[in-house]
Amino acid sequence: MSEQKQGELSFEEAIKELESVVEKLEQGDVPLEQAITMFQEGMNLSKLCHDKLSVVEKQLEQILTEDGEIQEVSFQEDHASD
To answer: At what angle do helices 32-60 and 11-27 cross, to 10 degrees?
Structure first.
């Protein structure tokens, strides 16, 4: 799958494609050269999913309050108490 086509995938489509790549690699009967290509494809899909999740996380960090103001909310865990 080309990088241009991967960029057009939704998060759900990318996860499904990534799961398919992982499943084929786990079967172990893929020739080495093809396995390397599939691994690279999987890494690209993984990055795509991570990037899409980061965008959504940033969108969720802005919550609209009752008076119509946008309020920043952090979903980062507080590690000060650890």
So the answer is: 150
User: pLDDT digits over 49-69, tens only?
Assistant: 999 999 988 887 777 677 777
Tallying the residues shown for the chain, one arrives at 82
Q: Give the residue ranges of the chain where pLDDT is below 70.
A: 1-7, 64, 76-82
In whole angstroms, what is the distance from residue 5 CA to residue 17 CA? 12
Find the Cα–Cα–Cα–Cα dihedral 44, 8, 3, 25, rounded to 10°.
40
How far does CA 24 lie from the centroid of its chain? Answer: 19
Look up the pTM and report it. 0.71
- SS3 of residue 71 by DSSP: strand
8 Å CB contact between 42 and 66: no
